[in-house]
C-alpha cells in the first residue's frame, strides 16, 4: 500500500466512485475482480494451510464474483473447495456472471450448508455496500457458522456489517480475517463492526492511488502521520512559559481527584506550567497532594476575571470532577476566547443551554475541544444523537459544525472531528482504557498539547493516540495513575 493511502479510509459510496473512475480510465474491471478474488484465496491458504475444506459462500453481486474467483483459485491450488450461493447464480450480471462462468465448481443453495470440523468459510455474500437487513436465509447460515466456531475469511467486510456505519444489519459473520481492497471503510473502524472483522488486510488490486485520494473525503485513521508536522522541536532555550501554561479547574472538597489527574497528565504531556484552580474549600486537600503542579484559589467569577488578565494563561481544562451547574456555565462562558478543553461536568452543565455555549464559542473564536462519551454527547447534542441514520463519524462531524468546536466523541472507536468536516478514527486504544479516571487523563493531555501551540484538531488527535499508547504500555491492570506514568513522549 502506498504511503499516500496509508492512513485514509473511504466510504462505500466513495469506493463505488473510485471503481467507476478506474473503469472509465480504461482499466479492465474484471481484472480488478480477479486480483481481489486471488488475494482472498492467497490469504486463506496462507492462514489455513491445514484446512480440510474451503467453503465459499457467494452472494448475488460483485462480492459474490470475488468469491467465485477465490473458489476457482483455491481449487486450482489443489484444495478441497465447495461453493454455496445465495439466490440464483444464473441471474448474475457483468463481471460477477463472468466470474461464475469461469468457476468450474457447481454451487449449491446457501441454506444447504452445514458447517463441519475442518471447514474454513470464505464469506463473499455481501460487501461494504450493504445498507439493508440481511435476508433470512443468509441470517440462518450466519448463525450456524458463528455457532460452529469454524474460521471465516471475509471478502471486503464480514457480511451483515453496514460499511458506512459499522452497525449490524440483523446478523453478521464474526470473521477471523478480512481482506478489503485499496482502503478501509468506516465499517472496519467503527464498533460493533470493527470487533467482527478479525485482522484486517488492505490489498492493492491495481487501482491507481490518485483515484482513491481524489474521491476520498477528509477521513483518516488516527496515526502520527496525521499530526506529526505540528509537533515541532522544543527550543532548548525555551523557558517554561513558552511551553505553555495549562490551568485545570477543580471542584469541591469531595471531588478533587479527577482534576488532579488531569493536571498531572498535562504536566507529564509537556505543558511548561500547570496550575490547579481550586475553590477555597478544597485548597487544603489539594495542597496536601500537589508538588510540581501549582495551586491557585479561584472561588468565583471575580477571582477568575482577575486571573484572566494574565495573558500567559493560554489553556484551560474544565469539567473533571467540577460539578454540574451555574458556576461551570459561568466559568466556561468566560473562557471561550482561549484554548479550552470542555469535559464531563463542563459539558453536562449546558444540557439545556447548549445554544448559548455554541453561540459564545462562535463569537469569541477560541479553540474549544469537547470530549463527550455517549451519554454526554446525547445531553448536549440530543437531536444529532437521536438520528439513527447517522454513523458515529457523521454524528461527530455534525456536532463539530454545530458547536464550532473540535469534538472528541469517546469510546472504543473514538472519533475526532473538526467543524470543517475533517475527521479521524482512533484504532490503537486497548479495551482496558475504560477505567475510572481515564477520561480525566485524556483531557489533561489535550490541554497540554493546546498549551504548547498545536492546532485544536491535531492536539486532540495526538492526545487520543498518545492516550491509547499509554494504555498499551500500562497493560491490562492499568489505572489512571499508571496511564500518566506510561505516557510515551511525542
Automatic annotation (TrEMBL):
List the keywords (alphabetical). ATP-binding, Isomerase, Kinase, Lyase, Metal-binding, Multifunctional enzyme, NAD, NADP, Nucleotide-binding, Potassium, Transferase
Q: Where does K(+) bind?
A: 63, 123, 159
Entry keyword annotation includes Lyase = yes
Residues annotated for AMP binding in this entry? 410-414, 439
Reactions this protein catalyses? (6S)-NADHX + ADP = AMP + phosphate + NADH + H(+); (6R)-NADHX = (6S)-NADHX; (6R)-NADPHX = (6S)-NADPHX; (6S)-NADPHX + ADP = AMP + phosphate + NADPH + H(+)
Protein residues bound to (6S)-NADPHX = 62-66, 127-133, 156, 258, 321, 373, 440
Needed co-factor(s)? K(+); Mg(2+)
Name the Pfam families on file: Carb_kinase (PF01256), YjeF_N (PF03853)
| Record-level GO BP terms | metabolite repair; nicotinamide nucleotide metabolic process
Superkingdom of origin: Bacteria
Domain named YjeF C-terminal is located at 223-490
Q: What is its EC number?
A: 4.2.1.136, 5.1.99.6
State the free-text cofactor note: Binds 1 potassium ion per subunit.
Mention one GO molecular function.
ADP-dependent NAD(P)H-hydrate dehydratase activity
Residue intervals of the YjeF N-terminal domain: 15-213
Give the protein family.
Answer: Belongs to the NnrD/CARKD family. Belongs to the NnrE/AIBP family.
On subunit structure and binding partners, the annotation says: Homotetramer.
Role noted for this protein: Bifunctional enzyme that catalyzes the epimerization of the S- and R-forms of NAD(P)HX and the dehydration of the S-form of NAD(P)HX at the expense of ADP, which is converted to AMP. This allows the repair of both epimers of NAD(P)HX, a damaged form of NAD(P)H that is a result of enzymatic or heat-dependent hydration. Catalyzes the epimerization of the S- and R-forms of NAD(P)HX, a damaged form of NAD(P)H that is a result of enzymatic or heat-dependent hydration. This is a prerequisite for the S-specific NAD(P)H-hydrate dehydratase to allow the repair of both epimers of NAD(P)HX.
What HAMAP family does the database record attribute to this sequence?
A: NADHX_dehydratase, NADHX_epimerase
The protein's name is: Bifunctional NAD(P)H-hydrate repair enzyme
Q: Which organism is it from?
A: Sinorhizobium medicae (strain WSM419) (Ensifer medicae)
Lineage of the species this protein comes from: Bacteria, Pseudomonadati, Pseudomonadota, Alphaproteobacteria, Hyphomicrobiales
Amino acid at each position: 500500500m502506498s504511503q499516500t493511502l496509508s492512513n485514509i479510509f473511504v466510504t462505500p459510496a466513495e469506493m463505488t466512485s473510485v471503481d467507476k473512475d478506474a473503469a472509465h480510465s480504461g482499466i479492465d474491471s474484471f481484472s480488478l475482480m480477479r486480483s481481489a478474488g486471488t488475494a482472498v484465496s492467497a490469504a486463506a491458504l496462507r492462514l489455513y494451510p491445514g484446512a480440510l475444506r474451503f467453503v465459499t459462500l457467494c452472494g448475488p453481486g460483485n462480492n459474490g464474483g470475488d468469491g467465485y474467483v477465490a473458489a476457482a483459485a483455491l481449487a486450482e491450488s489443489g484444495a478441497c473447495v465447495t461453493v454455496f450461493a445465495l439466490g440464483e447464480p444464473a441471474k448474475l450480471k457483468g463481471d460477477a456472471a463472468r466470474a461464475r462462468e469461469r468457476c468450474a465448481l457447481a454451487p449449491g443453495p446457501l441454506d444447504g450448508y452445514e458447517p463441519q470440523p475442518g471447514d474454513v468459510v470464505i464469506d463473499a455474500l455481501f460487501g461494504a455496500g450493504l445498507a439493508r437487513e440481511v435476508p433470512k436465509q443468509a441470517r440462518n447460515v450466519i448463525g450456524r457458522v458463528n455457532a460452529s466456531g469454524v474460521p471465516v475469511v471475509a471478502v471486503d467486510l464480514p457480511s451483515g456489517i453496514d460499511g458506512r456505519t459499522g452497525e449490524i444489519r440483523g446478523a453478521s459473520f464474526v470473521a477471523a480475517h478480512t481482506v478489503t481492497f485499496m482502503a478501509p471503510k468506516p465499517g472496519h473502524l467503527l464498533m460493533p463492526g470493527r470487533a467482527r472483522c478479525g485482522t484486517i488486510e488492505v490489498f492493492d488490486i491495481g487501482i491507481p492511488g490518485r483515484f482513491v485520494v481524489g474521491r476520498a473525503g477528509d477521513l483518516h485513521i488516527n496515526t502520527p502521520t496525521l499530526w506529526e508536522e505540528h509537533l515541532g522541536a522544543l527550543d532548548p532555550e525555551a523557558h517554561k512559559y513558552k511551553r505553555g501554561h495549562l490551568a485545570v479547574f477543580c471542584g469541591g472538597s469531595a471531588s478533587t481527584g479527577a482534576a488532579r489527574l488531569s493536571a498531572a497528565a498535562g504536566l507529564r504531556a509537556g505543558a511548561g506550567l500547570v496550575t490547579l484552580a481550586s475553590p477555597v474549600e478544597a485548597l487544603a486537600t489539594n495542597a496536601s497532594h500537589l508538588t510540581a503542579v501549582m495551586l491557585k484559589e479561584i472561588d468565583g467569577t471575580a477571582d477568575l476575571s482577575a486571573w484572566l488578565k494574565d495573558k500567559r494563561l493560554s489553556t484551560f481544562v474544565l469539567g473533571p470532577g467540577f460539578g454540574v451547574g451555574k458556576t461551570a456555565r459561568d466559568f466556561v462562558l468566560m473562557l471561550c476566547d482561549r484554548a479550552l478543553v470542555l469535559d464531563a461536568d463542563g459539558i453536562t452543565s449546558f444540557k439545556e443551554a447548549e445554544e448559548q455555549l455554541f453561540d459564545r464559542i462562535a463569537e469569541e473564536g477560541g479553540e474549544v475541544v469537547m470530549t463527550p462519551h455517549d451519554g454526554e454527547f446525547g445531553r448536549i447534542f440530543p437531536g444529532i444523537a437521536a438520528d439513527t441514520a447517522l454513523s458515529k463519524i457523521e454524528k461527530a462531524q455534525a456536532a463539530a459544525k454545530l458547536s464550532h468546536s473540535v469534538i472528541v466523541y469517546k469510546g472504543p472507536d473514538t472519533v475526532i472531528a473538526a467543524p470543517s468536516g475533517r475527521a479521524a478514527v482512533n484504532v490503537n486504544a486497548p479495551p482496558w482504557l475504560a477505567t475510572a479516571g481515564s477520561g480525566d487523563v485524556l483531557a489533561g493531555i489535550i490541554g497540554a498539547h493546546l498549551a504548547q501551540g498545536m492546532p485544536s484538531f491535531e492536539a486532540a488527535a495526538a492526545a487520543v493516540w498518545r492516550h491509547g499508547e499509554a494504555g498499551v504500555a500500562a497493560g491490562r491492570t492499568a489505572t489512571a495513575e499508571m496511564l500518566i506514568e506510561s505516557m510515551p513522549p511525542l
